[in-house]
Amino acid sequence: MAVLAPPVAAVRAVVRRALTGLPGDGPVLVACSGGADSLALAAAVAFVAPRAGRPAGLITVDHGLQAGSAGRAAAVARWAVGVGLDPVEAVAVTVAGRPGGPEAAARDARYQALAAAARRHGAAALLLGHTRDDQAETVLLALARGAGPRGLAGMPPCRDLDGVPLLRPLLDVTREQTRSACAALGLTPWEDPHNADPSYARARVRADVLPVLVGALGEAVLDNLARTARLVAADTAALDELAAVALTEARSGAGDGLSTGALAALPAAVRTRVLHAWARELGASPAALSHRHVAALDALVTDWHGQGATALPGGLRVARRDGRLRPVD
Asked: How many CA atoms are closer than 13 Å to the CA of 91, on its beta-carbon side?
């Protein structure tokens, strides 16, 4: 009997864990670009899902940003059909004209396409191939942006995408393991040239920053960065729960808006979360709502000296009136 290569076993093990206990009988869908990470994930799902009694399919997204991208997407789809995945779709998206930089625009288009596919097929979950290395890069980029705890929490292993669980089962698997798994299975991954393009911050972190850190601090630095994300994510989730309760309590009393007295009594870490959540409820775009906006709202509570209304994204304005923060015209 052939011995199963350890990297293949490692990827299958995390996939098996991710599929355990999923609700309903809908298929799981793998988002696959054809790169080593998502290809190793798709191969593992094709092996594990049928044995777990779960249908499994694949979605590959053609961003149309490189010559031959449609052909590559079609090749990934043909491979997926060949290994028994069903349903399989190659979806073309338009990136040009979307807000944000090229990375953000491509990501936005990709996630919209994946969410639409999940709805079409009644998916029980959508699986992405982000690895431990991707998580370490995410934490470093968040540090560089001064993103705070929410950014340092990195990519969650599970989150909701338009009502469908979005799972990242490979966050405890290394990029080297996915490459080795592909090699052991005789798969040839596609090497995305964007991953080596120094105009992208993530590519510079991958090519220049992480090797220096590993050289100076040892290979364990990647595990430590990923573990930091898990620890901060747990703390952030607890603070978010406290903030949800505090937001309800701050609404109590006469009139609309939030009580500045109730807000002032909160620890800063909870109060700023309350203000952030409330600003989003008012209609401020999450992408445009920054630390500066929340700090200005916080000043209406903790540094009140008669200042005027605070401007929020989307043309919103908030002022302090009669001991409450209120939206104003």
From this structure: 23
Which one-letter DSSP state was computed for residue 27? Answer: P
pLDDT in tens, 134-190: 999 999 999 998 888 888 999 999 999 888 899 999 999 999 999 999 999 999 998
Q: Which residues of 89-128 are buried (b: 16+ CB within 10 A; e: fewer)?
A: bbbebebeebeeebeebbebbbbbbbbebbeebebbbbbb
Cα separation of 252 and 71, whole Å? Answer: 58
From residue 313, how far is each of 21, 24, 224, 228, 270 by CA, in Å?
40, 39, 36, 31, 22
CA distances from 324 to 215, 253, 261, 299, 304 (A): 54, 10, 8, 13, 12
pTM: 0.87
pLDDT for 272-323, tens place per residue?
A: 999 999 999 999 988 788 889 999 999 999 999 999 999 999 999 999 999 9
List the alpha helices (DSSP H) in 170-267: 175-184, 201-204, 210-217, 220-251, 260-264
User: In the structure encoding, which two tokens stand for residue 205, read together?
Assistant: 């972190």
Which residues, listed in sequence order, are joined to residue 318 by a DSSP beta bridge? 310, 327
Place of tokens 């396409």: 113
Return the amino acid letter for 327.
Answer: P
Q: State how far the Cα of 183 lies from the Cα of 186, in Å rounded to an integer.
A: 5
The answer to whether 128 touches 38, Cβ cutoff 8 Å, is yes
| CA distance linking residue 313 with residue 287, whole number of Å | 9
Contact in structure between 163 and 205 (CB atoms under 8 Å): no
Separation between Cα atoms, residue 258 and residue 271, nearest integer Å: 11
